[in-house]
Design a protein that fits this description.
alpha/beta; VC0802-like; Rossmann fold; eight-stranded mixed beta sheet; seven-stranded mixed beta sheet; 11 helices; 15 strands
């Protein structure tokens, strides 16, 4: 079967969230139990590319799930190989178009002309059609070489982005960005069989993408007011947060995944355990970054401290350590904890950001926020 044969593909990444590209790609490949070799990855400010040697079934999965993939090109090893792929894709009208793109290095006009001339004999029996052609031939210039192939497919990235915060009926002042929430779900390897917990769920923004991907979700938060809208509309009509008549379940109902919500409850992470052992597949969360009563309570209980002079990190660590202690109980073996930690921009979080011998770090992705502080997404796996 053609789908069982490994081929070489060029993945094109969008020009955003570059620091998350490797983590997302590695996690999604890890979810799909099949042969895959990552031959090269080049990430720059303008996006990047990855070349993999894999089966088409894996590529189909990546196109379906990945946030940080724009499109995938099936690479040709020779002009004969390219001609064969084009013929396979031709239908009745034999229409095509050629797209020339560059990533990191721009193809000079002279070189571009040479590459196009190479295609003349292959495409002479076809007809150019710029709108909806049967075949798209791709010439992509990267830092290492010029790649030629045929468009394999576009990702569902734009479909995932339609759930952005502006389109949601229930919105809080600290709701997590939709794109980042999807990335957290992908990096945590969420699937349709997963049960996902967020101990700082607030308005449920981090959990919504997990539910959209088919997982069952559980949310808790110490502040019950995060779960319900205001009694009256804000005096400024432009402010849409916490609208009257909405609550934490509203967005899940809006997008048809209310059946994926196992429940939201008021609970402090520094209180006792609320779930049965080994019932959760993943814990994803964005901890509070400021001082609270719970921080002092965590310190009084003898929490293991990560020594750091980073003021932002110091505030978040007690919350993270407490959640991981709970996760030791809640998570199944091999379960994942995916969470942000804030830190000063000019300081990287220490190698052992959180000291817990029952977890191992899998990946980290740093997101620049301001000149003063940034945040790093950590992925831990329960041993």
């Amino acid at each position: 079967m053609e789908g069982s044969v490994c081929r070489r593909f060029l993945i094109v990444h969008p020009h955003i969230h570059n620091s998350f590209i490797r983590s997302e790609l590695e996690s999604l490949i890890g979810m799909f139990n099949t042969v895959c070799t990552v031959e090269s990855t080049k990430i720059e400010k303008r996006g990047g590319t990855t070349v993999i040697f894999a089966r088409s079934s894996l590529v189909d999965f990546l196109l379906d799930r990945a946030i940080l993939i724009s499109k995938v090109v099936l690479l040709a090893d020779s002009l004969e190989d390219l001609k064969e792929e084009i013929e396979k894709r031709y239908a009745d009208n034999r229409t095509y178009k050629v797209e020339v793109g560059s990533h990191i290095r721009k193809l000079p006009e002279g070189s571009k002309k040479i590459e196009l001339e190479k295609l003349d004999s292959i495409l002479e029996s076809g007809t150019v059609r710029m709108s909806s052609p049967e075949v798209v031939v791709e010439i992509l210039e990267t830092e290492e070489k010029t790649h030629t192939g045929v468009l394999y497919g576009y990702s569902r990235r734009k479909e995932h982005l339609k759930y952005n915060l502006k389109k949601r009926m229930f919105l809080g002042t600290t709701s997590m960005d939709n794109e980042i929430s999807f990335l957290m779900s992908n990096i945590a390897q969420i699937d349709r069989k997963s049960v996902v917990l967020d101990c700082f769920s607030g308005t449920g923004s981090v959990l919504l993408p997990s539910a959209l991907l088919g997982a069952f979700v559980i949310g808790s938060d110490v502040n019950r007011r995060q779960f319900v809208g205001r009694d009256t509309y804000h005096k400024n009509p432009k402010i849409k947060t916490m609208a009257p008549g909405t609550d934490v379940y509203t967005n899940f109902k809006q997008f048809g995944v209310e059946n994926k919500v196992l429940g939201f409850c008021t609970s402090d992470v520094f209180d006792g355990e609320t779930l049965k052992p080994q019932t959760v597949d993943a814990v994803i969360f964005d901890p509070p970054y400021g001082g609270r009563e719970g921080v002092q309570r965590g310190e009084n209980r003898g929490a293991v401290k990560t020594e750091t002079e980073d003021a932002y990190l110091q505030l978040a660590i007690p919350f993270v350590e407490e959640v991981l202690r709970k996760a030791e109980v809640y998570l199944k073996d091999g379960g994942r904890a995916c969470f942000f930690v804030p830190h000063e921009t000019d300081r990287e979080p220490p190698v052992k950001t959180v000291i817990n011998e029952n977890f191992e770090e899998v990946s980290r992705s740093t997101q620049y926020l301001t000149s003063k502080y940034s945040r790093t997404l950590l992925l831990y796996r329960k041993k």
